[in-house]
Amino acid sequence: MPPNQYDVLGIGNAIVDVIATCEDDFLVGESIEKGGMTLIDEGRAKQLYAAMGPALEASGGSVANSMAGIASFGGNPAFIGKVHADQLGEVFIHDMRAVGVACDVMGADRGPATARSLILVTPDAQRSMNTFLGIAGLLEPDDVDADLVERSTLLFCEGYLWDVESAKKAIRFAMQTAIDAGNRVALSLSDTFCVDRHHAEFRELVAGPVDTLFANRAELLRLYETDHVEEAFELLGADVALGCVTMGTLGSMLIDNGKQIKIPAYEVGRVIDTTGAGDQYAAGVLYGLSQGMSLDRCGRLGSLAAAEVISHVGPRPMSPLERLRIEDAKVDPRSWVKD
């Protein structure tokens, strides 16, 4: 197989998303932390599913969503994750392949069931995730195809996986394999609670093998234990070659070896569901990086993908991002970026 056969290889939780709308009172009644991600067991997953309203079900997981976005841009992504040989596992693999992601994951015949995330979307477009990780979090080094890592221009790893020791070893193995092959290593911090749980190890990863970091503003402040975002930007610039920080309606900031590049957010008529906004932002930036585009262009593609996904329910694009990318190329980038 030729080198760099794939643009981006994502390693993350293989999860089937179950998305439903609800009122704030439902979250209160179910003692659900609004806007965050809570790990639950299988019993709680069944109880909450029974209490939810009508739902949309589709393959998901943060990095898996990003790979789907890259495919929508016209890229050539691959994915490594873990599912059980059950119905939801088959649904996950089929969905990934159907959108153009290389997914040669084999369903395990032992262990917990395939993971699912019960996502509740309130009228303010905030999403509250209740995740049964099942077998997804039990990724092991043997599940990582070293040859596939070597043949991928970029490796993108999910912070959520850091909750299980075997998954940590798998990610460290993948990162070192990518570095040895001369490929780029990217990490998503995933969630503020995730940063809190693994603060010291995330700081070590960012200062070490990770050269590209994705975070939102709150995650970045937690990582560097400061209330001042400018201080956090400076610390991030000293740690990684490229930092990508999303800031909601304020757009995003790319930190290029310490230089700050401000990327405005695209305006949308109405925000329906913020599920997947960060995932699709990462998809746009990673796609651009894999194609050798300028950083301002990468950031604009990230904003474009995030705007598309928040305009409807669900964490993946409904409009082909490749078509939107071509239309956006007509816009003068000088009207978007300032140092």
**H-E order:** EEHEHEHEHEEHEHEHHEHHEEEHHH
Architecture in CATH? 3-Layer(aba) Sandwich
User: In total, how many domains does the architecture comprise?
Assistant: 1
How far do the termini sit from each other? 41 Å
**Order of strands across the biggest sheet?**
5-1-8-9-10-11-12-13
The value of Rg in angstroms is 19 Å
Structural class by helix and strand composition:
alpha/beta
In the predicted model, the low-confidence regions spanning at least 5 consecutive residues are 334-339
Percent helix among the residues?
A: 25-40%
CATH superfamily: Ribokinase
Tally the helices.
13
Determine the mean pLDDT. 92
Strand content range: 15-25%
| CATH topology annotation | UDP-N-acetylmuramoyl-L-alanine:D-glutamate ligase
The largest sheet is: 8 strands, mixed
Highest CATH level, the class: Alpha Beta
- How many strand units? 13
Cα shape: globular
Key attributes of the depicted protein:
8-stranded mixed beta sheet, 5-stranded mixed beta sheet, 13 helices, 13 strands, 21% strand
Could you characterize the architecture of this molecule?
The chain has a single domain (6-335), classed as Ribokinase (UDP-N-acetylmuramoyl-L-alanine:D-glutamate ligase, 3-Layer(aba) Sandwich), CATH 3.40.1190. The chain is built from 13 helices and 13 strands. It has helices at residues 24-29, 42-51, 62-73, 87-98, 146-150, 165-180, 192-197, 199-207, 217-224, 229-239, 277-290, 295-309, 321-328; strands at residues 6-11, 15-21, 37-39, 56-60, 77-80, 115-121, 127-132, 152-158, 184-188, 212-216, 242-246, 252-256, 259-263. A hairpin with a 2-residue loop joins β12 (252-256) and β13. The radius of gyration is 19 Å and the shape is globular. The model is unreliable at 334-339 (pLDDT under 50).
